[in-house]
Amino acid sequence: MPRRGERKTRIRSKGPANTQVTPGRIGVRVFLEQRRGRTIKHSIDPSDYRCTTLAAQLADEWLKMTRHAALSGGGSEYSGAVRSFAQFTDKHLSEAGVNPVDVRLDGHGVDLVEVLYAWEGDLRQKHGVKSKQPYRLARALLALIEQRASVDSGIPEHLRQRAKAPASYGKPTPQPLDEFSNAERIALRDAARAAVRATEARLARGRELLAAGTDPREGGWRDLPNLLWATQMRMVNSQTLQTHLPAKTRWWPPEVVDLLPAPEGQSRRPGVRVLGQELGRLLFPDEYDLQAFRILLLLGMADTTPEELHDLQLDDIEFTDGGLRLVQTKMRAARIRADLHPEVDLEVVSEDGEGQEFTGGGAWDVPGLMRRLLAATALIREIFDPEPYLFVAVRQLLGGGELTGKVAQFRTPQRCRFSFWITSQRDAQGRPLDISEPHEVRRLRKTTKVVRAVALGGTVSDLAGDDHHVEVYRGHYAHGTTAHIMAGRAINRSQEWVFQRVVHKPVLVDEAAEERLEESEVAGELGMDIEVAKAMRAGELDMGLVNCRNPYDSPQRTDNKLCHVAPGMCMLCRNAVIFYSQLPRLLLMSDRIERMRTALPPPRWHAIYGQQRAALDEVFAECADRLPAARQQITEMELNLDVPLGQRTEFDR
Questions:
Q1: Are residues 478 and 548 in the same domain?
Q2: What DSSP assignment string belongs to 141-159?
Q3: Which residues pair with 406 in a beta bridge?
Q4: Strand, coil or helix: what is 15?
Q5: Phi-psi bin for 260: left (phi > 0), alpha (psi -120 to 50), beta?
Q6: How many Å separate Cα 204 from the centre of its chain?
Q7: Is residue 417 part of a domain?
Q8: Statement to judge: residues 481 and 584 lie in one domain
């Protein structure tokens, strides 16, 4: 213990002079996704933007959202929203004289709500009013901010409220894809079948040459079979071919030169890189070749989406005695189901004329196509050992030109796309296929659904099948042109049925029956007695257009008074009887009705005069040979139809 008055000097530690803490580089946010046999990297680097802190905070929320919600595609909408907003913030704040470095979600120096509104307006101008991209990006960014605000109390209140509100611009109503027409479907089917045959013939030739090949280090590099042998052994690349083949293409063997595509607008043929690609195509199919199998399978599988077909693996495919069993996963519905595709029973007729039925020989049904596809890609699986997916293709790597087997994506390069395949096809006459745009592979599924609807008919619940709810089918498939045509035909048939049974039409009496009208049998057949028949022949029951069995029994009134709607409604009256001598009047009435077609809107004209027009057409169809003479009679005698004054103002306006 120190005594009173004694003080012990304490030695204090001193830190380094002029210490300045420099923030390190903010790390890159990375999300790795396994998709169809390959690892896809999604990343956001906050240091790419001047608003580094804001970009880092949003990127953290993107990673959290993608991982917790298990979003496919790496949460592309959310990552795209972060990049777009960070890039816009740099530009917008710099133009306003504000340093973007200072902006952050939990800061109060910059009003991010105003920046958000400006960003949404910029998206609207950039993408257009019909694009869904502004709505998607804004909704994604607001979701990230709201997620951050739920755990960070430093977020300003007005930014919290903005994050809870919807996007400034609503989602535009999309224009649904229409199906391919039946003629287009047949054209695509025939072109795909021809392409499958050509691919199989090319592969068969390549494997025949391969059987005759030997090691080119012993047998020489200028023989095509030896080059194919080296291709199978993965010895071929651009450097190898350049070393062992002459420098000039014209010095190559003719059978090797013939593999190269003909030059188009170039002074010379392609070189060793294209040769390596063509050597691979003699042994293995590429994505362009697989496009034909893809089209035929989608046309044959009504309950399969393109995504489900692409995700099929070898373990999901099982050949049974009854056909083909496929285990498919619908990602959006999180549903796994097994579908059985039966095989087509073929009949072989022997020489003695007796037929023998057997199962399993269908070449173009789903099981047959699967067998052919697996056979075409078998060598790829043997040589390159790719991921066990159904669609695997050979691809040439950039740089060295080596061949590798990959899962088909049908995206890049351009040659692998569905649209490129369509534009490169020709019909039997050598003309390009006339296929309506857009060239979307999803339209194949809609086409298959429509074919099923045409074949099965029935109610919407029947057509939806077991892979859709009724409302999903109604909203996504029942809007197609073919479905509308079918619905229109059904409505027309029902209306015609009602018209034939409910609407009473006039009776047309020919000249022979008119002469015998006073006979009891003829009059009874026409629904009148002898006295009415005599009065009709004498012209006493002429209503100005046709004759009437009983003018005091009009269906238009119930007070037993004289009909007041003749001749305007005579063609729809059960009492009307027409003589051949009255055909000129009917033609004049027909002309008046046609004049009204130009004076009234189509719906109103159809409601008022549509049935009369149809009744007149039926009468004219029965006596078409007499109409020219009736027209000539109108001209020679200058006939006019006697119409009451009240109706004349309507007909003649």
A1: no
A2: HHHHHHHHHTT-TTS-HHH
A3: 393
A4: coil
A5: beta
A6: 35
A7: no
A8: no
pLDDT tens track for 73-119: 788 889 999 999 999 999 999 998 888 888 899 888 888 999 999 99
Closest CA to 100 of 144, 146, 51: 51
**DSSP designation for 250:** G
Question: CB-based contacts of 69: which residues, under 8 Å, 6+ apart?
Answer: 75
CB 170 within 8 A of CB 133: no
- Single residue among 164, 198, 233 that ends a domain in this structure: 164
Tell the residue number behind the tokens 């194949």, with chain if given.
444
Q: Which residues contact 223 (CB under 8 A, 6 or more apart)?
A: 213, 216, 253
Residue 141 lies in a domain: yes
Domain assignment present for residue 516? The answer is: yes
Angle between helices 272-283 and 224-232 (to 10 degrees): 80
CB 263 within 8 A of CB 414: no
pLDDT at 556 over 90: no
Contact 394, 280 (CB under 8 A): yes
Place of tokens 């946010």: 29
Q: DSSP character for 542?
A: B
DSSP secondary structure, 479-519, as one string: TSHHHHHHHHHHHHHHHHHHHHHHS--PEEE-HHHHHTTTS
How confident is the model over 405-457, as pLDDT tens digits?
989 988 888 888 989 999 999 888 888 998 888 888 888 887 777 766 666 55
Decide: residue 495, CB within 10 A, 0-12 exposed, 13-18 middle, 19+ buried: exposed
User: Please, are residues 380 and 286 in contact by the beta-carbon 8 Å criterion?
Assistant: no
Spatial separation of the C-alpha atoms in residues 392 and 310, rounded to whole Å: 10
Q: Sign of torsion, CA 175 302 417 408?
A: positive
> Longest C-alpha distance within the chain, in Å?
157
Give the up-direction half-sphere exposure of residue 88: CA atoms within 13 A in the CB hemisphere: 20
Yes or no: say if 445 and 185 are a contact pair by the CB < 8 Å rule.
no
Q: What angle do CA 407, 408, 412 make, to 5 degrees?
A: 125
- Whether residue 632 sits in one domain with residue 561: yes
- Kindly calculate the radius of gyration of the chain based on its CA atoms and give it in whole angstroms: 40
Q: Which helix (H) or strand (E) holds 611?
A: helix 602-622
Residues 6+ away with beta carbon under 8 Å from 216: 223, 226, 227, 229, 230, 235, 244
Amino acid type, 147: Q
CA distance 76 to 85: 14
Q: In the numeric block, which tokens belong to residue 326?
A: 């496929």
Domain boundary among 471, 497, 523: 497
Extract the tokens encoding 61.
């929320």
pLDDT tier, 311 (very low <50, low <70, confident <90, very high otherwise)? confident
Cα–Cα distance, 487 to 283 (Å, whole number): 50
Helix H or strand E segment including 35: strand 29-35
pLDDT of residue 497: 61
In 353-490, beta strands by DSSP E: 355-359, 392-396, 403-407
33: enclosing H helix or E strand: strand 29-35
Q: Tell me the residue range of the domain where 485 lies.
A: 457-497
* CB 341 within 8 Å of CB 326: yes
Report how far apart, in Å, the C-alpha atoms of 76 and of each of 82, 88, 89, 105 are: 10, 18, 20, 21
Residue closest to 619 by CA, chosen among 505, 504, 497, 502: 505
Q: Which two tokens stand for residue 289?
A: 């070749």
* Calpha distance 46→484 (Å, rounded): 52
Q: CA-to-CA distance for 77 and 135, rounded, in angstroms? A: 11
Going by C-alpha positions, the residue among 289, 311, 293 that lies closest to residue 395 is 289
